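residues and backbone:
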Amino acid sequence: MRDYTAGAHPLDPNDYDWQHAFECCGPPEDGEYGFNSPDVRRAHPQDTATSLAPFQRSDVELISAYSEGENDGPEWLCMGKLKDGRWFVLSAGCDYTGWDCQSGGSASVADDAATVVAFGLTDEQCARLAVSK
């Protein structure tokens, strides 16, 4: 597994794995779904105001941390800010055969980075992204 500072950047348009991971947030750039459909959730359980609108890589303003995944291993994981002001955490994975067999994931969104870290990330994910709650 590569650490959060290495490997393909999540916004690299040519990266196959990140392309399919981001399908868990919204429609792909070409409009054709590959293997996943969007699952956007609010990070905080009592939040009723944050928009659950799907998003795609072109909607991302900033990637603050990311960690590449492995087939049948740790998920593809990234955190950032969208152009509409929401913060997000994306977690997606696939089995050893790749994205076309068994794959999936989701994105958690919040109005600020602290909330998405506190409620959208597990302790293990925080360690992988080198962020603290």
Notes: The first helix runs from residue 16 to 21. Confidence is low (pLDDT under 50) at residues 1-5.
